[in-house]
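Protein modeling request. Please complete all fields; requests missing the sequence field cannot be processed.
Requester role: graduate student
Desired output: 3D structure, token encoding
Chains: 1
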Amino acid sequence: MKRTKGASRAPKTGTGAKEKARALSHVNHAGEARMVDVGAKIPTERFARAEGRIRMSAEALRAIRSNSVKKGDVLGVARIAGIQAAKRTAELIPLCHPVALTDVQVVLSLDTTFTGVLVEASARSVGRTGVEMEALTAATVALLTIYDMTKSVDKGMVIERVRLLEKTGGKSGDWRAS
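Delivered output (178 residues):
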């Protein structure tokens, strides 16, 4: 049978949903997003550390340093917001598993070299899945909190360089940013 111009072709072999699903861990046989079953994994100690920063005007940095921002203690509230966010990561990121965290730390430092605040967050657990997303979420929400509390002084602040610094534990082993 001769093909006419504009007629559709049959899909090529190997491009169907089943083939794609086999290559992707969070996709089922029909090509739909799904949560991975980690029940068979052996619990191991997990650790992750992330960082980010927010650049701002010298005036905003002075207001944070002198604790004169109208909304109150920017660094203290941002620290608590980061810790709370780490504990709620599975509610924010659709395919993350709830993790029983054993420790979350959020450290905030004022930095005059780039005029802003550095945030470093770490998360720890003993479980079947990693805590990278918890550390990243803690750092990000701490930065967003700084923005929210300080925007009356500087609406042009820039959140940047949010990244994973390291992770340990689990099947994939240890990893450190270069």
